[in-house]
Amino acid sequence: MFEQLTQLVQQFGQDDVVKNNAIPNEQNEAVIEEAGSSIFSSLQKMASKGGVEKLAGLLQGNNAQDSSNPAVQQITQQQSGSLGEKNLA
To answer: Of 9, 81, 2, which Cα lies nearest the Cα of 40?
Structure first.
């Protein structure tokens, strides 16, 4: 699963990271790697804290793209914090 997640992050990271002038080119790889790690960590935390319903909700339809989805909000917040801590955002 981690490998598939990493591939998705790299695929979608091309537009959001590599083609983003606000992110220096020398940090592209680090940002993409941190994004993948952060997302996977968020999913693990959700599962370990009994958030199975949230995870299931992500897998139904296009819920993973819905920014009002509580799981998406939680993942986004953790990822933003993680990137900020490492001065990658």
So the answer is: 2
What mean pLDDT do residues 67-79 have?
Answer: 81
Distance CA 49, CA 22 (A): 35
Tokens describing residue 40:
């996977």
Helix, strand, or coil (residue 35): helix
- The answer to whether the CB of 88 falls within 8 A of the CB of 20 is no
26 pLDDT tier (thresholds 50, 70, 90) = very high
pLDDT at 36: 85
Give per-residue burial for 15-51: e unless 16+ CB within 10 Å, then b: eebeeeeebeeebbebbbebbbbbbbebbeebeeeeb
Q: Is the pTM of this model over 0.90?
A: no
